[in-house]
Amino acid sequence: MEFNYKKYRWFFTKSGKLVYGGKSAEQNEEIIRELVKNKKDFIMMHTKIPGSPFAVIKADVNKVSESDLEETAVWTACFSRAWKKGLKKTEIDVFLTEQLIKKKGMKLGTFGVLNKVDKKDAELKLVLINQKDILRAVPEKTVKANNKKFAKIVSGKISKEEFAKKLAKRLNRGEEEVLNALPTGKFKEIR
After folding, report:
1. Does residue 71 share a domain with residue 28?
2. What is the number of structural domains in the chain?
3. Whole-angstrom Cα distance, residue 157 to residue 143?
4. Considering the chain, what is the average pLDDT of its residues?
5. Which domain holds residue 171?
6. Order of strands across the sheet with 126-131?
């Protein structure tokens, strides 16, 4: 059975690695339980502050480049509560699946991380492009020369619904597709 990454938040790095993460605490829980059950180690990321997808780079740990790590850190930051709070930058924790623990009494979608955690600073800025014929909000570093950038976005003052409506009209896309591509919060388009 093929893995259905499209039910989560997702994008592909410039080198073609799938990155996905939960849209909710329930999905984060589902992702982690599945990874732990399969006993396969992957690089994962989460914001230092609560309210973030557990981002998984679905690739052999030894084949993940520094660029893959940077792209995933930015994506994790942008789809976290940091965007909704209007932050410009946030700190990302980088760790392996095997480091995750679930203690009795921890809330749904919440996990602890054992041992040393690497850190990455990530700027909250995304661009909208097509990936797999679907509109995705990705880090600018992800964009290949042949990708058309539809918009560059940061946290701003325009509501998600209003921003999606304007963008859908301009791009001749469905509003639902645009809404699914965007983080939670408010928006501003930049040049």
Report:
1. yes
2. 2
3. 25
4. 90
5. 126-190
6. 134-138, 126-131, 151-159, 186-190
